[in-house]
Structure formats: C-alpha cells, structure tokens
Amino acid sequence: MEEKSEFDFEEFKKQAIKGMYDGKPFSGEKGIFAPLMKHFLEAALAGELESHLAESKAKGISNRKNGKTSKQVKSLSGEFELESSRDRSGTFEPMILPKRQVIITEELETKVIGLYGLGMSTRDISSHIKELYQMDISATQLSSITDKVIPAMQEWRSRPLESIYPIVFMDCIHYKVKEDGRVVSRAIYNILGIDLEGKKDLIGMYVAETEGAKFWLSVLTDLKRRGVEDILIACIDGLKGFPEAIATVYSQTQIQLCIVHQIRNSLKYVPEKDKKAFMADLKLVYTAVNKEEGFRQLEALEAKWGKKFIIAVQSWFTNWENLSSFYEYAEDIRRLIYTTNPIEGFHRQVRKVTKTKGSFTSDTALLKLIYLVVQRISQKWTMPVRNWSVTLSQLYIIFGDRMKFHNFEKTHLKTTPSE
C-alpha cells in the first residue's frame, strides 16, 4: 500500500485561517484544529508501532505491518477519522490511544463523569456536551466513559480500614434495577463509621436482595478481612439477622436500636386521638436517667396502655435489650447513638442525586453512581462530629482496655481532636 504523504502544515495554516474568517469554530464537530490533532495522533501511533516491531525483532519474534485500520474519534479539537497501521501478530497495544477508545480528552471524560455523579441522565449529559463542545456523544460512549470509575470503585470498596471504630451506623436505601428483562428491588446497605478522630467514613457499601444473618455475616466478615478488629457500638434500625451475625464476628460490640424508628413504629398502632397522651408517657421511658428507671417507666406504660395498644407497647419489651444500651452513657454519647440520623442524613443527600432515576440498568450502574456521590459528599467530612473530645474521653473510661489494644493512648490521648 502506498505510504501516506507527509502532513502539509502550510496548507493546514491556510485552511485554518480561511476557516477562521469563514466563522468556523476552533473546536467541535467541524473544528478547524481537527486535522492537526489527527496528524499528531497518527504520527504518534506510527512511532509506537515502529518501536513495538523493533522490540519484537530484538526478541527474535517475527512481526511486521499488516495493513491499515481506522476509527471515528471525538476530541475537543473536533471529530475525525483516525488511521493507523496494524501488526501481523496482533500484539500491538497503543498507549496514546487504546484500541477501543474513541474519546481522547481527559477534560471531557472528567466533565462527563462529574455530570453523571450529579445524577444527570445520559440524555441531559449528551445535550450539555453538545452545547459546550459542539460534539455528539452516544449513550454507549457515555457509559464507556463512566465505566472508567469501576476499577477505582472496586479498589475503594476493598480498601484497608482502621482497626477500631468506636461507633458505626448501618442502614439501607432501596432502588429498582433491571434484571433479565424485568425490574427488581435492590437494597444498598451502607455502613458509616466514626473513627477515633471523630470523622465520618463510609466503610462499607453492599448490595443485597434480602437481609438476614447469612448476608450480615458476609458483610461483617468482609470488614474483618479489611482490618476492622473491633467495633464498640453499632447503631441500627432493626436489621434482620444482624444481632446474631455480629455476635459471631464482633462478640463484644454493643447494639443500639434506633429509638426514633422504634417510636415511629409504635405510633403506627396508636390512633390519632390518643397519640399525644401516649407519647407523653412513652417519653418518660427513653428520657429516663438510667436503664432501671427506663424499664420502670415502661412497665407503667404497659399498665396504662398495654391492653389497649398491645403491639405498640410489647415491641419495646421485645427489643428492650438492644433499645436500652444508650442508658449506660452520658448525654453527649446518648445524643449521638440513640438514632441512626447520621446515616439517614447521608442517604438523603444520595437521594437528591438518584431521585431522577426510575430504574438502573444493572447493579454496577447503581453502585457506580452511588460511589461517585459518596466521593463528592465525603469531601466535606473533614471535621469531627460535635463534642467528639468529650465523647472520646467517655468512651475511653468505658472501653479503655479495648482501646488500649489499638494503640489509642499513644496516638490520641495526648492530642485529643479539636472541635
């Protein structure tokens, strides 16, 4: 095949200047700089191939050029057909522009991933890119770009963790996902940890169709594998099978059921006309000075309302052991652990981004978006939670032996975190 002639830079200059006077854009689909970008890339690919063939020859491997290939490439300089040579053995893997890559600007890819992370649909992103860069990008190409975050997401989900977390909050958020031609429900279980510095960190993100002891055992085993040796307090909202699973993996962890959710669930079984009076008596239970006084007030609640609202009252007795953990602590810790509000607040921020999605094409697409949202939200998690210095001191009084095991005194006692 006849070799392609050298790039005529003088001719390019004349055409570019003419294009400028004709009002053509510098970039975009018919950008005047597209021919120059095409030349640079084709020259770079030719150089890479020559180097590859030379390396093959030095190793005694027979290989040579074997015709041409072309593909339509999009860049901020314009869209053009890129030609490059193939090698006979098919071992040539270009570095400057991999074989299946058709978009060559990191700026554009970063823009696409950023917009996707804000919850924009592929249609809206396409329109936005068209408006900014005069470039048409298909849904398939957009998906290919956003898929580039998958390796980073997988690495993040398996990253090493701290050896101890004083407090963790666990809750789930539900979505619809397409599977085998039908739409199914998916629950994303998130685990928000508070580390020894009092800072938030989403330490786990797991997909499950149903919850249960087997599922939670796999989650807790994964946390253990990633370095978590101890959890002091786990705050949950009645996760099925969780108490049994955590007793196996972290046998010393205290469980605190969310008081706010327990109150809401109780009020479902109380008619509107009695709610105010019932709540006045129930408040005496969860605001009691200690566990014994709380249980005494619960018995008083049962004596007054038990026959009338048996389900509302009995659920407190059934869950009392895991509802009453917070009584052991002073006010600052009580305020922090009696509700799963910290992770619910995080979920509200996630929902703001994902609420426009009717359903996701796959579990991976769902996780990909949540991961990007997490990365943006977590940038604000730079300060300790409120009154953490006091909270940490109280935790040390109660759990000192376990915290010493994790070098707590050496790393934190002399320099308690500032508020």
UniProtKB/TrEMBL annotation:
Alphabetized Pfam families for the sequence: Transposase_mut
Signal peptide feature range: none
Function: Required for the transposition of the insertion element.
Alphabetical UniProt keywords: DNA recombination, DNA-binding, Transposable element, Transposition
Name this protein carries in UniProt: Mutator family transposase
Keyword DNA-binding in annotation: yes
Domain of life of the organism encoding this protein: Bacteria
Protein family membership: Belongs to the transposase mutator family.
